[in-house]
Amino acid sequence: MLVDAAGLYFRAFYAVPESITAPDGRPVNAVRGFLDMAASLIERRRPARWVACLDLDWRPAFRVELVPTYKAHRVAKDGGEEVPHALSPQVPLLLEVLTAFGLACAGAEGFEADDVIATLAERDEDPVEVVTGDRDLIALATERVTVLYTGRGLARLETLGPAEVLAKYGVPAAHYADFAVLRGDPSDGLPGVPGVGEKTAAALVGRFGAIEDIVAAADAGDDGFPAGAAAKVRKARDYLAVAPAAVRGRTDAAVAEVADHLPASPRDPDRLAALADELGVASSVARMHKAIAAAVG
């Protein structure tokens, strides 16, 4: 199980009230929510291995060079990512709890969690489940890789393999990134092709496949285009020449090998107990203990 850690702790932060605090008054709603959500997933899915995949660079330069608007709406005044002030200090605390448990964390300098996940999924030979609320990662779905999409919350978790992606979006999972490039995605600052909506994007990808083939067909005057779509594609050729490389997850991130089997016992039980007491998250730590024990068997 490869978890988009930032996606899950942001979801936890907004799902659990900020009134949930440590005994000393520090907010711990994201810590508690993340542990509870992760424990729920482990209870339900029983993975043998688990990795929290990290954004060591939330807005990589190579993507901004290709698409300058990439995540531009999320840039704070200091140039960093705009993150709620009550969330930022919780992230290192959460990572400390995970480390004390012995749960693996992985990242790569200059890359997002998407790239870490894509790299680890590509590297592995076992069945993989990807936990994310980021639609770009839907492109990873294969017969071996299942995407557990959290976009509508864990209570309405969507299990997406190739058949489910095709049924839901009308495009093969392998071409989801091409579909996203055409349609655009405001959450990532991806403009899309003006005048090309979701239905037209799905129709073009379903008929022609990759962006490169769609542009070639537009240039050749193929009559398979909906009315006016070919002109719109040709007009956006500069954007279409670079955007796919910005959207597609990289599989060459320098992710170090990690010990990712669920731990039969905590790596540092004394530190874990101290953190549970210090942060007031003993019930969430106990739930994670129980979930791991059940998965390990």
TrEMBL record:
Keywords: DNA-binding, Exonuclease, Hydrolase, Nuclease
Domain of life: Bacteria
GO biological process: DNA replication, Okazaki fragment processing
Transmembrane segments: none
MF terms (GO), sorted A to Z: 5'-3' exonuclease activity; 5'-flap endonuclease activity; DNA binding
Domain 5'-3' exonuclease: 1-263
PANTHER family: 5'-3' EXONUCLEASE FAMILY PROTEIN, FLAP ENDONUCLEASE XNI
Function: 5'-3' exonuclease acting preferentially on double-stranded DNA.
Name assigned to this protein: 5'-3' exonuclease
Annotated source species: Jatrophihabitans endophyticus
Lineage start: Bacteria, Bacillati, Actinomycetota, Actinomycetes, Jatrophihabitantales
